What we know:
This protein is α/β, with parallel strands linked by helices. It is built from 16 helices and eleven strands.
Amino acid sequence: xxxxxxxxxxxxxxxxxxxxxxxxxxxxxxxxxxxxxxxxxxxxxxxxxxxxxxxxxxxxxxxxxxxxxxxxxxxxxxxxxxxxxxxxxxxxxxxxxxxxxxxxxxxxxxxxxxxxxxxxxxxxxxxxxxxxxxxxxxxxxxxxxxxxxxxxxxxxxxxxxxxxxxxxxxxxxxxxxxxxxxxxxxxxxxxxxxxxxxxxxxxxxxxxxxxxxxxxxxxxxxxxxxxxxxxxxxxxxxxxxxxxxxxxxxxxxxxxxxxxxxxxxxxxxxxxxxxxxxxxxxxxxxxxxxxxxxxxxxxxxxxxxxxxxxxxxxxxxxxxxxxxxxxxxxxxxxxxxxxxxxxxxxxxxxxxxxxxxxxxxxxxxxxxxxxxxxxxxxxxxxxxxxxxxxxxxxxxxxxxxxxxxxxxxxxxxxxxxxxxxxxxxxxxxxxxxxxxxxxxxxxxxx
Length: 446
């Protein structure tokens, strides 16, 4: 059995049933890292000895007959924008080199409480923005893995770890998952607390999840979901049963609203052709829907909110070390300082009527079907175009990308599904139905 290739749910079951120890599973993943990471470069920090000590402690816990968490012994990678009390957190910036926080971010703490082994920190673009890190695409080293959660997507795709977490303020979960050929899930805004993670924009920041199956991302997200008093966008409600609903059978076959969006001209021919074939295959289950001209403003509205918020939240770093910012980030801060306050407030307020329009769509359709990215992962260092992600980040709706399609060169193309805000479980169930209907969830690297 190739332990490093197990899905997250499979790995958890192997450890839970006693067929594999946590130390054996972690060792297999570390061996895989040693085998392929010189080429992929997905890790910003990884200490083999520390990872094994965590696994051995969990095995000892099991030997004493103590209760096991749902992720007992399962290794997880953490994007290097989440605080970890036992590892550096450097935000992909030289300004924070060597920083080691005193405590874990809320999401990391909940993973540990569930029994996860925190294998290491995955590479992020600078401040989770556009300037890329060192990571390469596991399918083709000349191509980008996407960003900003580049290491998180690539580590799962290269079979180094069964699950990772990242973030999305624009397209930083969905796009790299699509380029690397894994399942990427961005929950509804506020579902998973961001306490202890790099703050770019309170209105737009989401915790994201990467794994090999819909079941995997549902389990990871459910473990991290819930109220946190230090994140004002979480709510004191019951934790949604994402994992159980995701694997349940829909009461009726799902219906999809195929949305080309105002940015269809950005889609490459290979994407247009592939989605044409997918929609044709789905037949009456997929209907093309035009959301209207108002949604074409989403990119500009998102840009206003994101850039002003980033300029505000990175103000101290800019003042003390702007010469160590990338040109892209420095220009963002300087550009955003010129935005009138009235434009920023209007951009924040414009999301509510657009979500109200989406509610009408979701009263008839289970999910929106749309590309995750313009095409296959592009060559070069740029992290790619997030245009097909931006609207859904701005609106805070749940989104998931599935590697169901491939380009003519064999590279993965992501199929993105979008759900009603707050209705994550239904979206995950619909996504799993589509996978079972169409094909494989994970595009294995060459």
